[in-house]
Every structure is written in structure tokens, then in C-alpha cells.
Amino acid sequence: MIDVLIIGSGIAGLEAACNLYESGKEIFLLEKEKNVGGNVQNWDTLFPDGKNARDIISYYMQEIQARQITTYLNTYVTGIHKCVDGTFEVHTSRDIVFKCKTVLIATGYSLFNAERKEEYGYQIYENVVTSADLEKRFAQQSKNQLPNGKPLHRIAFIHCVGSRDEKSGNHYCSKVCCITAVKQAIKMKQLVPDVEVFCFYMDLRMYGPGFEEKYREAQEKWGIQFIRGRVSEVAETLDKRLQVKAEDTLAARPFKLEVDMLVLMIGMESQASTALFQKSCGLKCADSRFIQPYQHHLDSNATNVKGVFTAGACIGPLSVFDTINHARSAAISVSNFLAE
Amino acid sequence: MKKFGFTTAQSRSIDYDKVNTKLIKYIIENESSFSTCISCGACTATCSAGNITHFNIRRLNIQIRLGKYETIKQEIDKCMLCGKCMLVCPRGINTRNVIMLIKKGLTTLDLSD
Ligand SMILES: Cc1cc2nc3c(=O)[nH]c(=O)nc-3n(C[C@H](O)[C@H](O)[C@H](O)COP(=O)(O)OP(=O)(O)OC[C@H]3O[C@@H](n4cnc5c(N)ncnc54)[C@H](O)[C@@H]3O)c2cc1C
Ligand code: SF4
Ligand code: SF4
Ligand code: SF4
Question: What pLDDT score does B47 carry?
Fold first, then answer.
């Protein structure tokens, strides 16, 4: 029987797979997409130090190939069933049922669908993009001009789109989008030095090592302007520019700003399959719909279901740094459990 | 004594022990969501009254917390009760009910120190 069945091959699944392999476990890796790597495959450079995301992905590709870890691509996990003997049957979109001693959920997150915040005009106005779209553009090194070929003079980033927002049903903070906005704003200035960049925020969360330093750099070196106010709505002008309405709360004055491009800092949401796992094996989720760790500090990889563990952003928004650490600790927790 | 044409200014700092909290307590008792305001300003940005006057609903929240009732009395009638502010509030605060409670509180409560 398989020792550990890992669901999801993002950074979390890959890092845990390598560690569990090294400790001699028989593991299988299941991935719903046609490639391994998860969301990071689509990113350009990573905060805080500008590491190329493609280098991270190719590092992990080599690591799993060298170990010949059995990987099933295009395999969507639909349910985890606990058997009376304490082992598991895992059901997938294929006709195979996987039997295993433990399950490691590493399903990460899905991106918030910005169309749900209609007032920001995503997919309605052509020059409104999401942070994920922008990241892909950077990665593909597409020309930094508008689709109609006009140059960019001014752009704005809107923080907390689909996070910290009762209206979207997501009251939690997505944690990495503030620093992602800083990263992308700097990149924009590097590509188009004359562009004016504004960030509209409610609170700035620079929680990690090197983040506050990046924020300072954005202000000092790149002249990026941070305005404390939540954008209430966006309208398109005749020449396809975007008019943003907000209050500069520090000046206590409402104001309007016209920009050429608007970037929505979309948040993270729990994967749809988390709810399937909740149903099939009684997995406990937090109010945020992400998986609830068994004990936040001392046992953050275990869940309420004995033998089911987590790694990475399936427990809530995490950076790559946090994800790798959480995945390493998952390997230790699973190994300890199997040794019992 | 010779008058020099100036007086000693009162301290501008807020003395939290002396803040009149009667109105804020009344509002939170009846509309508890009000306590979750993070002063993001989305309500002010969208406000119909704020577009044509200096009315600032977000700042009103702060003035209530500080017990500055005189300013509130002058301002509150500018609100048209259109409810747009409720639609954008990320904390899901029933701002229109807050305004109704401010109006009611100002007329029915004894707000003296
Ligand atoms: C716009 C943006 C920019 C970012 N930039 C940075 C950055 O610069 N630096 C940084 O540190 N972090 C960054 N992040 C965060 C980073 O993306 C996450 O830390 C990372 O993706 C988490 O990895 P993960 O493996 O936990 O999840 P994911 O990357 O989400 O991987 C999960 C994998 O599981 C698979 N899966 C899901 N459900 C199932 C299922 N039921 N069956 C089978 N497979 C399944 C998915 O297809 C996916 O491959 C950024 C995030 C965003 C949104
Ligand atoms: S990290 Fe920043 S932008 Fe993202 S949800 Fe939290 S406060 Fe908002
Ligand atoms: S929109 Fe809501 S949270 Fe923001 S300032 Fe107004 S009342 Fe407060
Ligand atoms: S209800 Fe009053 S405060 Fe709210 S948007 Fe309308 S006019 Fe402004």
C-alpha cells in the first residue's frame, strides 16, 4: 500500500514529496493540471529578492525526476474516504481508486474571480487587469503598453480585491498581495521609467523578512505613491482610460484619478475540492473555508482527521517561503505518524 | 493687566478619560457592526452627499467616537439616506442604520457630559 498520497503538485506538494522520498516512503503525487508547479508556474520574479519563479519550478522538476516520483497528471481528486482499518481510499476523476496509509493535502488556493467585484470593471473595461494577469504578462515579457498600442502614463493598483471584504464573503486577509503590489509596482517602474504608479490600500501588511525594506524602496527609489483609501468604484472614460474614485483618508478628502491601466490585487480562496474533502471524510475547515490545522502552533500539519495532513496554502494564504517551510514540517509530521 | 490680544490655547490632545461616549455606546448597542469600521473611506468616496458638499461620513464616525456632537448636528442632515455607502462597505456595516441612530440619538438622548 502507498505510504503517502500527496494531492496537488504546487511548491508544497513538490517539496513534501522530495522530503518524504528521502525518508524512504512510498509516495504518489496527484495533480489535476497537465503540469506540476501550481500557481508559481505563472509568476515572473518572486518577492522579496527577485528570484526567478521559473528557476524554482525547474529546480523542483529536476528533483522529482531524479527521484522518479510517481506522478499522475490530469487527475482531479474528488474524495477522501477513511476505511475501518484507518487507511484511506482516494477517489479521482480517473477510474482508479488509490489506497494509502496517509493523505497529504497540498491543494493550495484558487484565485479570486475579479468579475465578482463588478464595480471595478474586470472583463468589462479592457484596461482593467488582475495581479495574476500582470504577472503572466511580465513572465511572457510582452510589451508594456496598452492593447491598443498607446503608451502607459499612469497606473494604479487596488489592494484587497476579494479579501477583507464581507461583500465577497471573504473576511480574511490574503497576506501576500500587499507585497506583491509593491513588487509589481517596482517592476512597472523598471520597465516604463516615466510611468506614475499609485497603490490604493486600506492597511499595508509587510509581514515578512525583507518586505518592509521593499516598501521603503518603492517609496524612496521609485517614487511610488501609496494612498490610504479603498476604491469605491471605477468608470471608463471615452478614450478607454479609467476613472478611480476613492477617499484619501489621511487628507480626509474624496478624490478622482484617471489612469491608463488598473491592476486588481486579487486574493486567494480555498480550492473547490476542499469542500469535497469536508464532505467525504469530515475534514474540518475554518471560517475562511481553508483547512483548519489541528493545532495552530505545535501541530499545524495535522488535521482533525487522523492520518490526513496538510502542506502549503491549503490552510490559508502563504508565501513561497512559508509554503516550503510548512511542506518540510509536513514531511516530518507524516513520517512520525507512520512510525507510530 | 495689559491685554496682548491673544489667549492661551486649549490643549489639542484628546483626553480619553473625558471623551463623551454616550452616543457611540447607543449606536453600537443597536448596530454592533459599527464597531468594526476600519476607516477605509469607501463610503465617503461613493457618497452622494459628499460629492456636492463637504459631508464626510467616515469622518463622522470618528467624531462620534470623540464625542464631538456639535459638528455632527450640523452635518448629519446633509445625508440623503440613499444607502450607496452600504453597498461598498468592506466590513458590511449597515451605515444607513447608523445614520438613523445618530439622528435618533441626537434628538432623544441626554448627551450632556
Ligand atoms: C499574483 C500573485 C503573485 C505571487 N507572487 C509571489 C511571490 O512573488 N513570492 C512568493 O513567495 N509568493 C508569491 N505568491 C504566493 C504563491 O503563489 C504561493 O505561496 C504558492 O503558490 C503556494 O503553493 P502551494 O503549493 O501551497 O499551492 P498552489 O500553487 O496553489 O498549488 C496547488 C496545486 O494543487 C493542485 N490541486 C488543487 N486541487 C486539486 C485536486 N482536488 N486534485 C488534484 N490536484 C489539485 C493545483 O492544480 C496546483 O497545482 C503570489 C501569489 C499571487 C496570487
Ligand atoms: S495582503 Fe494587503 S492587499 Fe492582500 S488582503 Fe491583506 S491587506 Fe489586502
Ligand atoms: S466603508 Fe465601512 S469600513 Fe470603510 S470607512 Fe465606511 S463605514 Fe468604515
Ligand atoms: S446614505 Fe447618506 S452617507 Fe450614505 S452614501 Fe447616501 S448620502 Fe452618503
Answer: 95
The preferred substitution site among A11, A14, A40, A291 for testing ligand 1, maximizing ligand atoms within 8 Å of CB, is A40
Q: What is the pLDDT of residues B51-105, one digit of tens each?
A: 888 899 999 988 999 988 888 988 999 999 999 999 999 999 999 999 999 999 9
CATH classification of the domain holding A179: 3.50.50.60
Domain limits, chain B: 35-108
ipTM of the complex: 0.89
pLDDT in the model for residue A167: 95
Alpha-carbon span A131 to A262, nearest angstrom: 10
Phi/psi of residue B27, each to 5°?
-65, -45
Contact B61, B36 (CB under 8 A): no
> Which of A209, A241, A267 is where one domain is finished?
A267
Residue of chain A with shortest Cα separation from B90: A165
Count A/B contacts: CB-CB distance under 8 Å: 65
Compute φ and ψ for A135, nearest 5 degrees: -60, -45
pTM: predicted TM-score of the whole model, two decimal places: 0.95
Query: Is A247's CB within 8 Å of B41's CB?
Result: yes
Which domain does A307 fall in, by range?
A: 2-108+271-339
Which of B89, B94, B95, B102 best tests ligand 3's pocket when mutated (most atoms within 8 Å of CB)?
Answer: B89
The reported pLDDT for the residue numbered B74 is 87
Q: What is the 3-state composition of chain A as percent helix, strand, coil, each rounded to the nearest 5? A: 30, 30, 40
Backbone dihedral region for residue A203 (phi beyond 0: left; psi -120 to 50: alpha; all else: beta): beta
Q: How many domains does chain A have?
A: 2
